[in-house]
């Protein structure tokens, strides 16, 4: 299966070709926008669309989709500039690890990844630069969230009391979102009300999100995916509780005016949390051992375990998980959602005392053994940690939106006519 790989190419000028005498110059590429001293090209937009078109409703590069992609590229450029001004750096080892994870997800090694990039006409050096930029943006956002969000002990107390009262933690919502930033409050209110009046079903909402929303997921029809109720802004959860859906809003916040579409809702009726005592052996592909050889090594170790070899001793000798190797692969008591889905699925299907066959995750090839299971109430410390994370998640989207608005206001942005 051919995998499509994002690789936006930022160049500082438009490209023109010289043609024979008496012929008019032929434009090969055009400038879509200037962000400070950086240019975003028409080819950047086309390249990004080729990657995301399977996730774009309709799958056609309409003028609205083009505008949303250009907005994404402008915001990426602003965030990269911000990170570099603050001296945020990405080490070669971080980029190497990220690329290895990409290769692992594609069930190949570095050489196989290079070949697939070449087949798609993507230069490896430029691909590596794009991966570095994505990590850079992630670090910048993390720094902004850490510096602008502070959770007090009183907030945690109030959150836990409210959660217990309303049983909020068990609800999850599948949402779509439209946000219009309030440059002029009266005009923006009128605009969001006009949009709301035109929405009669989910497809209408998707179309309006693509055409008008200034949110991070506009190009996907405003799709936020599944969100836990306790991780949503209070503005959203209160409105969902008080208004008859599926269309919720308009709602006003510091970020602007919002509309929500409640696609679905589900509840989790789990009173106790299951924990699993598990150990594992992890082997990874590397520069001298490709993925096929790594799989063969995991199968060899599995056969040794089936013939009575000691799991902890093999883990100490072969496992490449730095966090558990010295403990003989012991991961301790694992709670749901802690491990990657592939690991958790195999762990849940493995009986106590059994050893799993080798299986693959983004980190490499695993063998695990389940040593015990228990039902336990979450400790107060864990509850408070989870509450703090949920409170940060409630505030994060608004904080990032406000930060991006500040970046746009302070930057020189010149969008060219299409």
Automatic annotation (TrEMBL):
Domain PpiC: residue ranges: 170-264, 273-372
EC number: 5.2.1.8
GO cellular component term of the entry, any: outer membrane-bounded periplasmic space
UniProt GO molecular function: peptide binding; peptidyl-prolyl cis-trans isomerase activity; unfolded protein binding
Entry keyword annotation includes Transcription: no
Keywords linked to the UniProt accession: Chaperone, Isomerase, Periplasm, Repeat, Rotamase, Signal
Biological process (GO), any one: protein stabilization
Reaction(s) catalysed (UniProt annotation): [protein]-peptidylproline (omega=180) = [protein]-peptidylproline (omega=0)
Matching SUPFAM superfamilies: FKBP-like, Triger factor/SurA peptide-binding domain-like
Pfam families, per the entry: Rotamase, Rotamase_3, SurA_N
InterPro entries: OMP_Chaperone_SurA (IPR050280), PPIase_dom_sf (IPR046357), PPIase_PpiC (IPR000297), PPIase_PpiC_CS (IPR023058), PPIase_SurA (IPR023034), SurA_N (IPR015391), Trigger_fact/SurA_dom_sf (IPR027304)
Principal location: periplasm
Domain of life of the native organism: Bacteria
Residue intervals passing through the bilayer: none
Signal peptide start-end: 1-23
Compartments in which it is found: Periplasm
Domain statement: The PPIase activity resides only in the second parvulin domain. The N-terminal region and the C-terminal tail are necessary and sufficient for the chaperone activity of SurA. The PPIase activity is dispensable for SurA to function as a chaperone. The N-terminal region and the C-terminal tail are also required for porin recognition.
Reported function: Chaperone involved in the correct folding and assembly of outer membrane proteins. Recognizes specific patterns of aromatic residues and the orientation of their side chains, which are found more frequently in integral outer membrane proteins. May act in both early periplasmic and late outer membrane-associated steps of protein maturation.
Record's protein name: Chaperone SurA
Organism field: Marinomonas piezotolerans
Lineage: Bacteria, Pseudomonadati, Pseudomonadota, Gammaproteobacteria, Oceanospirillales
């Amino acid at each position: 299966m051919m995998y499509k790989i994002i690789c936006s190419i930022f160049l500082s000028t438009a490209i023109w070709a010289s043609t024979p005498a008496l012929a008019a110059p032929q434009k090969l590429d055009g400038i879509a926008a200037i962000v400070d001293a950086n240019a975003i090209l028409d080819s950047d937009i086309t390249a990004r669309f080729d990657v995301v078109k399977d996730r774009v409703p309709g799958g056609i590069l309409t003028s609205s989709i083009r505008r949303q992609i250009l907005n994404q590229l402008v915001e990426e450029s602003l965030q990269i500039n911000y990170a570099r001004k603050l001296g945020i750096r990405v080490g070669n080892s971080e980029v190497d690890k990220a690329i290895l994870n990409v290769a692992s997800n594609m069930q190949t090694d570095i050489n196989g990844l290079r070949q697939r990039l070449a087949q798609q006409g993507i230069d490896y050096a430029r691909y590596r630069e794009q991966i570095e930029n994505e990590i850079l943006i992630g670090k910048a956002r993390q720094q902004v969230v850490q510096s602008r969000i502070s959770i007090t002990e009183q907030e945690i107390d109030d959150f836990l009391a409210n959660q217990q009262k309303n049983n909020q933690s068990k609800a999850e919502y599948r949402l779509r979102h439209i946000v219009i930033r309030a440059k002029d409050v009266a005009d923006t209110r009128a605009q969001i009300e006009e949009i709301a009046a035109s929405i009669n079903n989910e497809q209408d909402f998707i179309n309006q999100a693509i055409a008008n929303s200034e949110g991070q997921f506009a190009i996907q029809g405003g799709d936020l995916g599944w969100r836990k109720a306790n991780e949503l802004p209070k503005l959203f959860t209160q409105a969902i509780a008080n208004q008859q859906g599926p269309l919720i809003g308009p709602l006003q916040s510091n970020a602007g005016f919002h509309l929500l579409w409640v696609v679905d809702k589900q509840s989790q009726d789990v009173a106790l949390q299951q924990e699993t005592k598990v150990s594992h052996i992890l082997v990874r592909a590397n520069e001298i051992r490709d993925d096929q050889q790594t799989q063969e090594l995991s199968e060899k170790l599995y056969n040794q375990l089936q013939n009575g070899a000691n799991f902890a001793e093999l883990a100490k000798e072969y496992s490449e998980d730095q966090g558990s190797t010295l403990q003989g692969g012991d991961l301790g008591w694992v709670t749901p959602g802690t491990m990657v889905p592939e690991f958790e699925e195999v762990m849940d299907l493995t009986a106590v005392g059994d050893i799993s066959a080798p299986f693959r995750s983004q980190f490499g090839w695993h063998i695990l053994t389940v040593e015990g299971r228990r039902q336990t109430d979450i400790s107060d410390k864990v509850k408070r940690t989870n509450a703090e994370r949920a409170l940060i998640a409630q505030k994060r989207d608004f904080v990032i939106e406000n930060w991006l608005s500040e970046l746009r206001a302070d930057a020189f942005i010149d969008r060219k006519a299409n």
